[in-house]
Amino acid sequence: MSTPAATVVICTHDRADVLGEAVEGAITEAGRNASEVLVVDNASSDGTTALLENVLRRHAGLLRVTSEPRLGLSAARNRGLADARGAIVAFLDDDAVPQPGWLGALLGPYADPRVACVGGRIELRFALPPPPWLGPAVHSAFSAFDLGDQPRRLRYGRDDYPYGANISFRVATARAIGGFCTRLGPLGRVDLVHDETDLCYRLDRAGHEIHYAPDAAVTHRIPADRMAPERVLRRYRLVGRSGAVFVLRNRGVLRAFWRIRWLYARALVSPPYAVREPIDPTRFARECRRQEALGYVAGLARALPEVGALRREALARVGAEITA
Q1: How many domains would you assign to the chain?
Q2: Which of 2, 106, 136, 247 is most buried, most CB within 10 Å of its CB?
Q3: Are residues 12 and 35 in the same domain?
Q4: Residues 93 and 191: beta-carbon distance below 8 Å
Q5: What span, in angstroms and rounded, lies between the C-alpha atoms of 112 and 114?
Q6: Residue 245's domain spans which residues?
Q7: Are residues 201 and 236 in the same domain?
Q8: ∠ at Cα 50 (69, 41), nearest 5°?
Q9: Model pLDDT for residues 184-213, shown as the tens digit of each residue
Q10: Each residue of 267-288: pLDDT tens digit?
Q11: Which residue among 204, 225, 246 closes a domain?
Q12: Long-range pairs for 276-280: beta carbons < 8 A, 24 or more residues apart
């Protein structure tokens, strides 16, 4: 096979029940865009191997499989970056399905050599109709991402960066700047985040451009068990905890403490909400925000003793080629 235009990377850990749909969708998109699919098996112990062997028999020309024994999504994504053959790597979650035209829409902005990252829309598909309290105000807990219908450049402090369920990078640039930070991102059952935010921030600060492509859309599957209120609240706490590490690494101690006043002061003084049926949507959304704020403060206290190492590591990753 000639050098592919892009490598679609799907990292997976014990998700054989949903992985097949993501892989089949990615293969369809890769075939339409002279690209390939690479699945990174991140220490799975379920039926993932058997499932991938079956898909490989049918799509050997478009699909490759590799493994990353070190548990953690960032480690798996770094393996995908290292093994990608295409000039662009497009990351797709193992429970996300690309919509028609997804990959072509992601690749379009790379005609501009200044562009180093492109992400797109993430639409939610709930396994069951969501309860009334689970409205758009808390959909970000499930990686919903929609910045409208117009493509545009994204900048830190003004926009959200694309989410990891649907994001792509220029491979050489992402490798050269050090890839993903393994202190961030999901690790087994601990769903830390900000792994893609950390990489986008370093690219942005280095002068590269991050773009939003609205037509590059994926559908993100949400199983019923993730809709439990305690799961949603825990997700927000982990968002806050991850945010503390990100800000300390990249912005320093003063910015990290200023963020409490600037972003979380109101949430921290809001009264707690004891969640019980019937759940009030407005109060629940406010409690989600409070949990994020509490998670941020706890994460700051936890990471502060390591701030020197975090800062040195962030600086060292610039110029450190990823060869994981």
Answers
A1: 2
A2: 106
A3: yes
A4: no
A5: 5
A6: 229-314
A7: no
A8: 25
A9: 999 877 888 999 999 999 999 999 999 999
A10: 999 999 999 999 999 999 999 9
A11: 225
A12: 279/131, 279/132, 279/133, 279/229, 280/133
